[in-house]
């Protein structure tokens, strides 16, 4: 299907929207906030014991919270493409480090701009930059990360008091290297660590247990050490590091203490951005915009803290990666203090927004609208899917199956979890319930086939366009831990 046909359909939808609004009043603004790397269970409104999110908790009381919102990939680039196009990652194929969202894809910004909205993105760059295709459809695309980002955002909003707008706001405040911990630790002040880094870079791997432990902890917790010791130098240590994480750390009190440091640093980033968002939303309220602005707060993926022996967001599909917050506030339509237990997906956000605005959805979308749930109605059950290239997953009827991905270079053993009894995914039920395994296998097979048909209909190539990375983007990605 050609993009021009889809744009024509959206123009026709815009005419319909104008007719509806002529009868019903002003069009609502749309604000989509993506808090990169935020897992759901680290917010008070999702049951966390620490006070990380007083403002987000308040938003949940003022709007609707989805208890089981599932992302479609494990990392920033493919997950945001899915969120903004309502396509699964195995359909749009933007999954590699330098893949780019091509102009053939129709984005939320393009659809809303053609429906009469002013559009702007204020993002933190890196993977969410014009080089990766995210500038499509935005009248203003600002990827400058800095202290005046919020002021630039609010200045733009101030100019739109008489016009409806779509604002996409993205932040890395919660992302590695967790810079907003209230008491950051200066690891490089320890000369022993500098010496360890020099030895590793010289390919001297004869580290004592204590030195090895320090190297692992520094690699995990500090940007400086992460940049000093390059990935190719660490390869000979990979197997031993994995053994350390999975087998040895419970017997190492200092490592346990460092894990607490990691979690505290991550939580500090949540609290830091929670305050930023509160201040911005208060300023929007002073402009009298709250009652005619749809506010959507979500994330692109979570973060691992050794629940399954992993740190960060590697290509795994456990719920510490897949379950993210989803809070929607819009007083004229959205229920107050409502909690929706039914699972939804990130690709459902765009179809829902379009239905809220009266804009017909393009036929190629793979998500579904959950507007009925926002209105207080029921939401039929549906499976949720995710893709990490090496693996793919389906969650359905209280179960989850993780198996090898269609493009996995090597086969992986399947994992089957009964989430209603085992939410932490500790007990692999493969071999114990063959009927459920077979049913979920069939669902994933059908999903693969649907994605292939969707790719063919959209003319999506198996090999996507490649982004050109200039030095500034490389530096940004290196600071986030994506490049060495």
Which key terms come to mind for this protein?
4-stranded antiparallel β-sheet; 15% strand; alpha/beta; 8-stranded mixed β-sheet; globular; Arylsulfatase, C-terminal domain; 484 residues; 17 helices; Alkaline Phosphatase, subunit A; 2 domains
Description of the molecule:
The protein is globular, with a radius of gyration of 23 Å. It folds into 2 domains: 3-175 and 284-380, 3-Layer(aba) Sandwich (Alkaline Phosphatase, subunit A), CATH 3.40.720.10; 391-466, 2-Layer Sandwich (Arylsulfatase, C-terminal domain), CATH 3.30.1120.10. Helix 1 (3-24) packs across helix 5 (108-114), helix 6 (149-158) runs parallel beside helix 12 and helix 8 (209-221) packs parallel to helix 12 (253-286). It is α/β, with parallel strands linked by helices and 484 residues long. Residues 4-24 and 249-253 have low confidence and may be disordered. The strands form 5 sheets. The chain has an 8-stranded mixed sheet with strand order 6-5-7-1-8-12-2-13. A 4-stranded antiparallel sheet has the order 15-16-17-18, with helices on one face. The longest helix is centred in the middle third of the chain and has 34 residues, at 253-286. The chain contains 17 helices and 19 strands.
């Amino acid at each position: 299907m050609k993009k021009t046909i889809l744009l024509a359909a959206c123009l026709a939808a815009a005419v319909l929207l104008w007719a509806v609004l002529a009868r019903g009043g002003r069009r609502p603004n749309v604000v989509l906030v993506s808090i990169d790397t935020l897992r759901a269970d680290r917010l008070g409104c999702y049951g966390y014991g620490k006070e990380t999110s007083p403002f987000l908790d308040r938003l949940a009381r003022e709007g609707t919270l989805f208890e089981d919102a599932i992302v479609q990939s494990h990392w920033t680039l493919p997950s945001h493409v899915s969120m903004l196009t309502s396509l699964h990652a195995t359909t749009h194929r933007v999954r590699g480090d330098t893949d780019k969202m091509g102009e053939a894809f129709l984005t939320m910004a393009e659809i809303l701009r053609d429906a009469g909205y002013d559009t702007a993105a204020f993002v933190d760059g890196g993977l969410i930059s014009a080089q990766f295709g995210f500038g499509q459809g935005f009248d203003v695309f600002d990827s400058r990360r800095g202290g005046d980002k919020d002021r630039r955002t609010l200045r733009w909003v101030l100019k739109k008091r008489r016009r409806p707008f779509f604002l996409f706001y993205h932040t890395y405040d919660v992302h590695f290297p967790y810079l907003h911990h209230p008491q950051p630790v200066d690891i490089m002040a320890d000369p022993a660590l500098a010496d360890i880094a020099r030895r590793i870079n010289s390919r001297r791997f004869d580290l004592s247990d204590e030195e090895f432990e320090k190297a692992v902890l520094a690699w995990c917790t500090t940007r400086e050490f992460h940049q000093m010791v390059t990935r190719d130098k660490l390869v000979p240590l990979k197997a031993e590091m994995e053994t350390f994480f999975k087998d040895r750390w419970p017997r190492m009190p200092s490592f346990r203490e460092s894990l607490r440091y990691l979690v505290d640093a991550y939580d500090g980033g949540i609290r830091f951005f929670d305050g930023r968002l509160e201040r911005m939303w208060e300023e929007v309220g002073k402009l009298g915009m709250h009652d005619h602005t749809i506010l959507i707060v979500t994330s692109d993926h979570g973060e691992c803290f050794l629940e399954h022996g992993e740190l960060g967001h590697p290509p795994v599909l456990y719920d510490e990666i897949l379950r993210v917050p989803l809070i929607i506030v819009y007083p004229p339509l959205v229920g107050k203090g409502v909690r929706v237990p039914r699972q939804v997906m990130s690709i459902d956000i765009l179809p829902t927004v379009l239905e809220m605005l009266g804009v017909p959805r393009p036929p190629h979308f793979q998500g579904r609208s959950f507007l009925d749930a926002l209105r207080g109605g029921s939401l039929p059950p549906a499976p949720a899917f995710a893709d990490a290239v090496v693996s793919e997953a389906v969650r359905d009827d209280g179960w989850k199956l993780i198996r090898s991905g269609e493009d996995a270079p090597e086969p992986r053993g399947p994992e089957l979890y009964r989430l209603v009894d085992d939410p932490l995914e500790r007990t692999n039920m493969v071999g114990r319930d063959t009927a459920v395994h077979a049913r979920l296998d069939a669902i994933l097979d059908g999903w693969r086939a649907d994605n292939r048909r969707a790719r063919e209909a959209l003319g999506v190539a198996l090999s996507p366009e490649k982004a050109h990375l200039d030095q500034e983007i490389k530096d940004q990605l290196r600071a986030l831990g994506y490049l060495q």
